[in-house]
Automatic annotation (TrEMBL):
Sequence positions that bind (6S)-NADPHX: 74-78, 139-145, 168, 270, 333, 387, 454
Stored SUPFAM superfamilies: Ribokinase-like, YjeF N-terminal domain-like
The protein's name in its UniProt record: Bifunctional NAD(P)H-hydrate repair enzyme
Catalytic activity, reaction form: (6R)-NADHX = (6S)-NADHX; (6S)-NADHX + ADP = AMP + phosphate + NADH + H(+); (6S)-NADPHX + ADP = AMP + phosphate + NADPH + H(+); (6R)-NADPHX = (6S)-NADPHX
Record family assignment: Belongs to the NnrD/CARKD family. Belongs to the NnrE/AIBP family.
Stretches assigned to the YjeF N-terminal domain: 27-225
YjeF C-terminal domain mapped to chain residues: 235-508
Residues bound to K(+): 75, 135, 171
UniProt subunit comment: Homotetramer.
Keyword terms: ATP-binding, Isomerase, Lyase, Metal-binding, Multifunctional enzyme, NAD, NADP, Nucleotide-binding, Potassium
Enzyme nomenclature, EC number: 4.2.1.136, 5.1.99.6
Length: 511
C-alpha cells in the first residue's frame, strides 16, 4: 500500500534539506565533480560504508548476523566497508558477492582488499532466523532487469521475511523511474547519500524503501545544488512564499473569482465539491455555471456559492464578457464531451485560465493540438489533472514510451501542451512546460476515494484565482490535498476532505 515517505537527514555540519532530488546520472556527475576537486573517491566510499554500518547497528541491534550482499560496483564497495566496520565493532558480519570478485576494480577493489573478511558466492548463503540483510548489490544506478537467478534469490529472502537495510536504493528498483526490474528487495530502511533519487519517491520504488536516511558524506553542497536541475520533492519550501496572506485591504473580488461548470441534473455533485474546495482555498467568490436543466438540482445545495445559468456557447460568451471571471474549472461530472471542448476552447481564446479535469480531459482525446493552440501563451494558463487512465487517453504516444518514467512522461506532456500537468496518483508528479517538476509523496492511501480529484481541481483553481502562479498553485494544492486527507483520517469521504482544507492551509500559512 503506498505510503508517505519518512526522511531522516544526517549531516556533517551543513544544514541539509530533503527537497533535493538527483537522478542517478546527475548523482554520478556530482561524485565525479567531487573527485575532480581533490576529494578522494575512496574517502567518499569510506564515509558511505561507515554510515551504513552505523545505521545497521542503531536500527537492528538485535541482529544475530549481518549478511552483507555486495555487487561488482561502488555500491558493493560501500558494502565491503560496512562489513569491515561491523566486524570491528564486534558484530557478526558475513560477506556474499553476487558476481565474480575479479570484476572488482577501482575503489570497490580497494574496499574489498581492506575488508579482510572471507567473501562467499551468494548461492552459498543459508538463511537463518536473526539475520539482517545489508543490500549493497546495485543501488540507484540500476537500469536493466536483474538476472533471473538473482531475482529468484531476492524473492526467497523476501518470502523469508528477513529485515533488509538497503544501500542507496533497494536492488531491483530503477533509481531514475522507481520501476521494479524483475524483482526487488523490500527494505525496512534505506541509506542514501547526499540527495534522494526519483526511485525513493516514485512508485513502486517508494514502497520498497522503508524509511530513508539521507547521509552527507562530505561532498560540498554547492556541487549538489549545481546538479539538482528542475526536479524537486514537493514540500512547502517550494511554494509557501507564493501563497496569499490575509490583508485588511482585501475584498472578495481582489481575492479572485472561480467559476466551476456543472454537469447535468443528475450529475451536480462533482462540481459542488470543486466549488466548495475553491472557496475553502481562499477564493473570494466562487460560482457554479450550470445548464438550465441542472439549476433546480443545485439551488438547494448552494449557499455561499453563487449560481449562474450557462446553457450554451452564447451564454458562455456573455459570461466571459465580465472581466472578473478569470479562473475556471471544467470537467468534473460534466458529461458532454462536445460541449466540454467548445467551452474549453472559448475560455482559452478569451485569455482566461482553466483547470481541466475528468470529462474535460477525455473530451480532447485525439485533439490535443486544438487545446494547445487555444491556450498558447508565454505564461501557462491551462492546468490538466489526469489520473493514469486519462493520461493514457490524452497522451497515448507519451504513455507508451516504456523506457521513460512518470517524471519524464509528465514533463513531455507539459511541454507538448504548454500547460501545467498534474499526473495524479499516490506519487503525483507536477510538471511545467519549462521542465520544472515536483514529485509529491505525502498522500495517504485513503485519499483514493470518489470525489477527491474534484476537490483537488477546485483547490488548484482557488489558489490560481488569488494570483498564485499556476505551477506553484498546483504544487501547493497537491500537497495541501494530502495534508487535509491526513487530518480527515481514515475512512474518509470527499466531504470529510473538504472540511479539513481550512486546517491544512492554516498549518502552512501561519507565521
Amino acid at each position: 500500500m503506498p505510503k508517505t515517505q519518512e526522511f531522516v537527514v544526517q549531516t556533517a555540519g551543513e544544514i541539509w534539506t530533503t527537497d533535493v532530488v538527483l537522478a542517478p546520472k546527475a548523482m554520478a556527475e556530482v561524485d565525479a565533480a567531487a573527485i575532480a576537486s581533490g576529494i578522494p573517491g575512496y574517502d567518499l566510499m569510506e564515509r558511505a560504508g561507515q554510515a551504513v554500518a552505523a545505521t545497521a547497528l542503531r536500527s537492528f541491534p538485535e541482529a544475530n548476523r549481518y549478511i552483507v550482499l555486495c555487487g561488482p560496483g561502488n555500491n558493493g564497495g560501500d558494502g565491503y566497508v560496512a562489513a569491515r566496520e561491523l566486524a570491528a565493532c564486534g558484530a557478526s558480519a558475513e560477506l556474499y558477492h553476487v558476481e565474480e570478485l575479479d570484476r572488482l576494480s577501482g575503489d570497490a577493489r580497494t574496499a574489498f582488499e581492506r575488508c579482510h573478511l572471507p567473501a562467499n558466492p551468494l548461492p552459498t548463503y543459508q538463511m537463518q532466523p536473526g539475520d539482517v540483510i545489508i543490500d549493497a548489490i546495485f543501488g540507484a544506478g540500476l537500469s536493466r532487469d536483474l538476472p533471473p537467478e538473482l531475482a529468484e534469490r531476492i524473492n526467497a529472502i523476501t518470502a523469508a521475511g528477513l529485515p533488509v537495510l538497503a544501500v542507496d536504493l533497494p536492488s531491483g528498483i530503477d533509481g531514475a523511474t522507481g520501476e521494479m526490474r524483475g524483482a526487488a528487495f523490500t527494505a525496512s530502511k534505506t541509506v542514501t547519500f547526499m540527495a534522494q533519487k526519483p526511485g525513493h519517491l516514485l512508485l513502486p520504488g517508494r514502497d520498497h524503501c522503508g524509511s530513508v536516511e539521507i547521509v552527507d558524506i562530505g561532498i560540498p553542497r554547492r556541487m549538489v545544488e549545481a546538479a539538482r536541475g528542475a526536479l524537486k520533492r514537493n514540500h512547502p519550501g517550494l511554494w509557501q512564499a507564493d501563497l496569499p496572506r490575509a490583508n485588511l485591504a482585501d475584498h472578495k473580488y481582489r481575492r479572485g473569482h472561480v467559476s466551476v461548470f456543472s454537469g447535468p441534473f443528475n450529475g451536480t455533485g462533482a462540481c459542488r465539491l470543486s466549488a466548495a474546495a475553491a472557496a475553502r482555498s481562499g477564493a473570494g467568490i466562487v460560482a457554479v455555471a450550470a445548464r438550465r436543466s441542472a439549476v433546480a438540482a443545485l439551488v438547494p445545495h448552494l449557499t455561499s456559492i453563487m449560481l449562474h445559468s450557462v446553457d450554451n456557447e452564447l451564454d458562455l460568451a456573455h459570461y466571459l464578457d465580465d472581466p472578473r471571471h478569470q479562473t475556471f474549472v471544467l470537467g468534473p461530472g460534466f458529461g458532454d464531451f462536445a460541449q466540454a471542448r467548445s467551452f474549453a476552447l472559448a475560455i482559452g481564446h478569451a485569455q482566461r485560465t482553466l483547470v481541466l479535469d475528468a470529462d474535460g480531459i477525455t473530451a480532447f482525446k485525439g485533439k490535443v493540438d486544438e487545446l494547445r493552440d487555444a491556450f498558447a501563451d508565454v505564461t501557462p494558463r491551462l492546468v490538466l489533472t489526469p489520473h493514469e487512465g486519462e493520461f493514457h487517453r490524452l497522451f497515448p504516444e507519451i504513455a507508451a514510451e516504456n523506457a521513460k518514467g512518470k517524471v519524464e512522461k509528465t514533463r513531455d506532456a507539459a511541454g507538448l501542451l504548454g500547460a501545467i500537468v498534474v499526473y495524479k496518483g499516490a506519487d503525483t508528479v507536477i510538471a511545467a512546460p519549462d521542465g520544472s517538476a515536483a514529485i509529491n509523496d505525502n498522500a495517504p492511501p485513503w485519499l483514493a476515494t470518489a470525489g477527491s480529484g474534484d476537490v483537488l481541481a477546485g483547490m488548484i483553481a482557488g489558489l490560481i484565482a488569488q494570483r498564485v502562479p499556476p505551477f506553484a498553485a498546483s504544487c501547493a494544492a497537491v500537497y495541501l490535498h494530502g495534508e487535509a486527507a491526513k487530518l480527515a483520517g481514515s475512512p474518509m469521504t470527499a466531504e470529510d476532505l473538504l472540511e479539513a482544507i481550512t486546517a491544512a492551509m492554516a498549518s502552512i500559512t501561519q507565521d
